[in-house]
Write a structure and sequence with these properties.
- The chain has about 150 residues and is mainly beta.
- It contains one helix and ten strands.
- The chain has one helix spanning about 125-135, and strands at about 1-5, 5, 15, 30-35, 45-50, 60-65, 70-75, 85, 105-115, 140-150.
- Strands 1, 3, 5, 6, 8, 9 and 10 form a seven-stranded mixed beta sheet that branches. The protein has a three-stranded antiparallel beta sheet with strand order 2-4-7, with no helix packed on it.
- A hairpin with a 7-residue loop joins strand 5 and strand 6 (about 60-65).
- The N and C termini lie far apart (about 35 Å).
Amino acid sequence: MKEMTLRSGAFNDHTIIPSEYSHDSGDVSPPLEWSEAPEEVVELALACEDPDAPTGTFAHWLVAGIDPATTGLDPGERPTGAVLGRNDYGAEGYGGPKPPVGDDPHRYFFRLYGLAEPSGLGRGFTAEDLRVAMQDKVVASGTLVGTFAR
């Protein structure tokens, strides 16, 4: 599998996500940028999940159908032509960090996937739908981890 570099102008890998990108501040997604997708990629997918949530892994952001020519997103931007999944808050789009008050910092894994075939996902898909749709299609990926506590 090929590696794609995923980074943010708002935070570095394994550092604190600024509160302006939290659930309490209006759910504005952070800026992201990534390296150009390999030639065989026909679709990009993006997920942000918190494996430290008390109820198990919590999906904060799911996006599929991103044009492989795209190399980043501005704060709050929805990629043209992409489809938004349903986060575990029950809404489509980005739902920022909101760990329980007093918890140790939670980790938020932003993962970018390059798919060699279309995912076929439609609006409102779940994290499980994404995992199933990507099976045997991922040819490149990149990960960025942010942390957050309240």
